[in-house]
Amino acid sequence: MPQNIAPGDAIRVKVVKQPTNTAARKTLVRLLSKDPAARKADALQRKVRQANFRTKQRGGRVWEHRPVKQRLVRGDVGETGALTATVDVLRDLASVQRFVEITPA
After folding, report:
1. In contact, 20 and 82? CB cutoff 8 Å
2. ∠ CA 27-8-72 to the nearest 5 degrees?
3. Cβ neighbourhood burial of 34 (10 Å; 0-12, 13-18, 19+)
4. Measured CA distances, 16 to 25, 27, 36, 40, 75 (Å)
5. Residue 1: what pLDDT?
6. Is 80 exposed, middle or buried (0-12, 13-18, 19+ CB in 10 A)?
7. Residue 46 and residue 72: Cα distance in Å, rounded?
8. Strand partners for 12
9. Are 74 and 26 in contact (CB under 8 A)?
10. Model confidence over 48-104: pLDDT tens digits?
11. What mean pLDDT, rounded, does the chain reach?
């Protein structure tokens, strides 16, 4: 990880290697989900899911149909994200540094 990145800097993270364990994949997904474009897409998807929420009567009970959430960020090789380097982000990046490439944005 570049040593010249300080808290508050804008950075770009790119996944260059497939994570070898589940914890690293989850950390990458959590980090890449902080990208403003990913947040905007997630908010749009949330609106669509709420619009398609349906209830119906079946046997005297109310049944709810909730569409399954589609995971937009998966932590696969080639995914990129632009985020602000905060202390918690830098700590998480240090734990998955062998899977990512970090550059100043």
Report:
1. no
2. 35
3. middle
4. 12, 15, 21, 24, 10
5. 62
6. middle
7. 12
8. 82, 103
9. no
10. 999 999 999 999 999 999 899 999 999 999 999 999 999 999 999 999 999 999 999
11. 94
| Residue labelled with tokens 């700590």 | 91
Average pLDDT over residues 39-49: 95
As to burial, measured by CB atoms within 10 angstroms (0-12 exposed, 13-18 middle, 19+ buried), residue 46 is exposed
Q: How much is the average pLDDT of 35-41? A: 97
- Burial grade of 90 (CB within 10 A; 0-12, 13-18, 19 or more): middle
Which amino acid, residue 61?
R
